[in-house]
Please model this.
Amino acid sequence: MSHKTGLVWHELYMWHNTGKYAGVMPPGLQVQPYEHSEHPETKRRFKNLLDVSGLTEQLVAIRPRPATEAEILMLHEPDHLDRMKALNETGGEAGIGTPMGVGSYDIALLAAGGVIELVDALLDQRVDNGYALVRPPGHHAIANMGMGFCIFCNGAIAGLHAMNHRGLERIAYVDWDVHHGNGTEAAFWEDPRALTISIHQQNLFPLHSGGMDKRGAGAGEGFNLNIPLPPGSGYGAYEAAFDRLVVPALEAFAPELIIIPSGFDAGIHDSLGRQLMHSRGYRELTAKLMSTADRVCGGRLMMCHEGGYDASTVPYMGLAVLEELSGIKTDIDDPLLEVFEQIGGQDLQPHQDAVIKQAESLLDVLRT
Ligand code: ZN
Model:
């Protein structure tokens, strides 16, 4: 079955200039300048493959607008907004390892506003689901600072828009980026209206963040679910985590909208993660989320782009997800999928199973 799938995109997203870092290291006399890890090519090539495959023209184009200051201030502190705005003319640092170029503040507003526009398109039934291919990413940014290449927490701001201005009472996040979605977690830490699930590589980034014992606080206690998978987890571990944790948690919470902060840095060739995921894995996780969304919230599901740093393989993972969302299979096949599927360690391993088993007890509070 094909769907009306929205795609948020703007060329200016690619103009956010992260400069001459060497990966995540600031350049200096002991660090030869190179490209920043969060450079535009990964996302540009993702969009290029959508174009070449013929899929883009079958999606519903959603033109982003800048988020307003009031929208940013639903989550972020005025000081943070003012600091970011002041750097718009010069560039600077939004937070540790988070460089901004000239105009990056304006582009960050366009990223947050793009995700908000997708929420509105979904709630107004102009689309059935959608993907916001925005940049800079958002899920590490917290109230008073940017971090981890993120300036504003795009997905969380859009969720607050859905609840504060569009009347939704309950939303859920499933963050499958390989890094912990600490910004989204922090945004709803004491807020029982949002179930925040993050499935990430154990203790990767931010360090000492994303532990299973972090459950939320106050009225929000029990509505934050961290699934820290061991490094080396393949599709078997992801499949088990979705079947045994993510899907039951969504069914118990019954959100009215599901937002997926979507990073492809759990991909097997990624430079900033050590997991083994591949395009079929992301395709099948998308299918699981879509059938869950069909059961709990009339299929209302959307994704906003986060990480993913291997420019040669990210486009195939992205295309697989967009094919699944839209129900349209293009003629383009992932040339490396067969190799990646056969690589050792793709099946669920006992030490990964043990982590998932431990997390199963965290679902009890959602079932009461
Ligand atoms: Zn990431």
Summary: The pocket of zinc ion is lined by residues 177-179, 263, 265, 306-307 (CB under 6 Å). The chain has a mean pLDDT of 97. Residues 255 and 330 are 31 Å apart (CA to CA). Strands lie at 5-8, 60-62, 92-93, 99-100, 129-132, 171-175, 194-201, 224-229, 258-262, 301-305.
